[in-house]
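Input chain follows. Return structure tokens only.
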Amino acid sequence: MEYYIEESCKIPQIAEVDVLVCGGGPAGIGASIRASRLGVSVMVVEALDCIGGIATAGMMSHWGGRSSSKIMQEIFQNTYDKAQEVGWCNNDKCGHDAIYHEVQKIVLEEMMLKENIKILYYTRVCRAVVEKDTVVGVIVENKSGRGFIRAKRIVDATGDGDVASSAGVPYFLGRETDKRMQPCTIMFKVGGVDYSRALFPPSFETTIETEKGEIQALAKMHLPFPAGHVLLYASPTPNTVVCNMTNAIEIDGTDGESLTRGVMTCRSQIIPIVKFLREYIPGYERCWLMSSASLVGVRETRHFEGVKSLTKEDILEAKYQEDWVVRRAWFNFDVHNLTGASLDKTGIQKNWKQQGDYTIPYGCLLPKKIEGLALSGRNISGSHLAHSNFRIMSVCIALGEASGVACALSVLQSKRLRDVDPREIQKIVGE
């Protein structure tokens, strides 16, 4: 491999802040709002042009799962109220957790600005700056060039854990046994759907017989591999449906070329899927392609080593952890097939028996060896199978709230993050 030696240069410090949140997805939203409400200065750097991540740019259909997040409930209500002004379609097919994407962008931005949170869009984190095993800031790059942002505490809400990886926090990729990661998806939306006849299969294991055959079997027969399942969700805009049906396997979301291949694979499947819907799914005979997500849905990449790590047993046993910072978390083992379409053989949806809520301990947010940095969202410390549960957005925003509170208390109390008492975090997020 040939190398180009970059000349050394002075990088200007463009900001100094108490808490820097890297990533504006669900975890970043929870972290920044909670931290700001405790009276510290907060800045969010986001690579895209909007807040929300998969909930907005990723065009996810709904939030899914559940958790104790109070901010999530605020988002639901604020979005519903604002969307009523511009055409939210009240129907019995979707609830308050459905996402009106364009309104959601506006509402989230308004919520952030109301808390005096500074947002920097089109800005990507290049690397962490570490001094004596403590992250003291990050190097970012945008249209203005490179800049250094100094921060007393940092929340890594990048999804892939870009800050933690750069800081040297140990991690493993994907499944422990073979490093395979869950497939990627580009969500898209179709219009022209006849809601009076339309089908809305919400899971891989939803089988529906039609005149032309069973829909999941038809998808495997007629869609280009590795696509081959039907997941369709009602939308709060009239006669529109969000489709979770593109699929790209063997993709590493931390590798630029691999991620590009994943995007192009998913995008190449969209027109065949629309044609399939028109031909085989009742109510979709006259549907048409409206829009597709500008952010590919990467489900799984790095799993970091934390002071504690969440296991599948913790979830299955609905374990109550005394040092919890997230409670009332609930979802299933949503493992998309690592080698094709539909549910992986390790996943559990329809046959999910565990009905109790579980908690997530503070140690899962604290990386080993490195101080000044809190993990947040799907990059916390946990196993591959546990991750398939806590990666859901409703849990990620609660993880964000916990990390934001922890960072704010750490600054206000002049303590290391690992010395913050989780019982104090509980008092705030458990209000």
